[in-house]
Amino acid sequence: MKYVSDVRFWILLFFVIRLYGITFPPLEVGHNWRQTTVAMVSRNFLEVDANILYPRVDIGGEKTGITGMEFPVFNYLIYGAAQVFGYQHWYGRFINLVVSSFGLYFFYLLIRKYLEEKTAFYATLILGVSIWFQFSRKIMPDTFSMSLVIASLYYGTYFLEQKKNQWVNLMAFSILFLLGVLSKLPSGYLLVLLVLFLPNTTVSWRKKIVFGALSLLVLMPVYLWYFKWVPRLVEEFGFWHFFMGISFSQGVQELMGDMPRTLSRFYDTALKFSGFIAFLIGLFFMFKNRQSFLKWIIGLSLLLFSIVIMKAGLNFSKHNYYIIPWVPVMALTAGYGLAQLKNLKYTYFILAFIMVEGIGNQHSDFIIKPEVEFMINLEPELDAISSKEDLFFINSGDYPTVMYFAHRKGWVGTNAQIQNPRHQEEMKSNGLKYILILKNRFGTTVDLPDLTSIKDTPDYTVYKIQ
């Protein structure tokens, strides 16, 4: 049973568990809208234009759909797989799972360099069953991005501390950090932890200056993409899609107005309740043992992550994945807390409880509910009555999910919008050919007496614009 104490066994076990349903389409209840947005950008690289600087979605109406968003590193990997194997929904799931599993291992290696091995072991298991567990198999860049950043910190510390392979480690840090932060901007806040090396007298000032200069150089493409190119795409192509944050004052006001849900992101969403208790145990022992290194990690990371929270405002409390960048810090603290317990039986019991609660509360992510399965066959059904070039309106609100599975382009909106004669006429003048009204999921049935339906099913009705 020696392998049970090897963190690689657990990372592999978590990997295998999440292979269940890996080929499922992105139709699970949680964040199908976000996954299909990523997937449609990847598919458009394959079918429309492979220029990575011009990502495009399918919900831009008559426009090109080109818009500002995260730099599409993750999307482009999906596109690359599709070029070789042909397009399938699930490539993003598998790519994210592989990269995020390596991220867990780098997390373990990074902690083991500075704290006890058992702290690294417990922390990695706790992170593995946290919100990380479900989002590392979603077609979303959050854990993908964090994994690259964690790996970059590992190589960055080796550059600062070791004399061997200095330039290899420095280049590995630079490339991984650049790709990680480009993939998801908030992940970059972890760079602040390298400030801990400034007072370290064993690291030469030459290394510190080289490392600092290169870090700033790496951040330059990030700045250019998010603060120059993204606004330019929005302005030039006329379609806004990506959330770039709000003012600090507005963010604080929104968070204060939704404080219960905001706090729940920390005590429930991140590690679940048992994991949060372990986090509190870690905080207790951190102060009791005067563990200054961990204090600095928590203090610096929370300071920078608070900026992310305030810039996100209501989106932080509304969307559970916004907590992901700080979950590794919470898992580290929880792992440290368990490592301080003297009685191994209690430690293993608490750890087992955390793992059971963590995985058990995420089981719904492995299920596709029967009421949404109609979308799997939506594309061939629409192919029988329309061409892929025809523009559609779908009453799915802000959700792009149905448009993705329809494999069409056009508009998504509400019943009120499609019933508004002025809005309907405006879409007609811009090329609207069909209206798809969802009856049960993502939308509700609505009467359009002036139009004649050409296809009617228990789940949707299609109207053709004359």
Q: What separation lies between the terminal Cα atoms?
A: 71 Å
Helix amount, in percent? 55-70%
What is the gyration radius calculated from CA atoms?
A: 24 Å
Topology as a string of helices (H) and strands (E): HHHHHHHHHHHHHHHHHEHEHHEEE
Tell me what you see in this structure.
- With 466 residues, the protein is mainly alpha-helical.
- The protein folds into two domains: 2-365, no CATH class; 370-464.
- It contains 20 helices and five strands.
- Strands 2-1-3-5-4 form a five-stranded mixed sheet.
- A hairpin with a 3-residue loop joins strand 4 and strand 5.
- Helix 1 (7-17) runs parallel beside helix 5 (117-128).
- The N and C termini lie far apart (71 Å).
What is the fold's blueprint, element by element?
Elements: H1 7-17, H2 32-47, H3 73-85, H4 91-114, H5 117-128, H6 132-135, H7 142-161, H8 166-183, H9 205-237, H10 248-257, H11 259-270, H12 272-288, H13 292-312, H14 314-318, H15 327-340, H16 344-360, H17 378-383, E1 391-394, H18 401-406, E2 409-412, H19 415-419, H20 421-429, E3 432-438, E4 453-456, E5 460-464
Parallel strand pairs: 1-2, 1-3
Antiparallel strand pairs: 3-5, 4-5
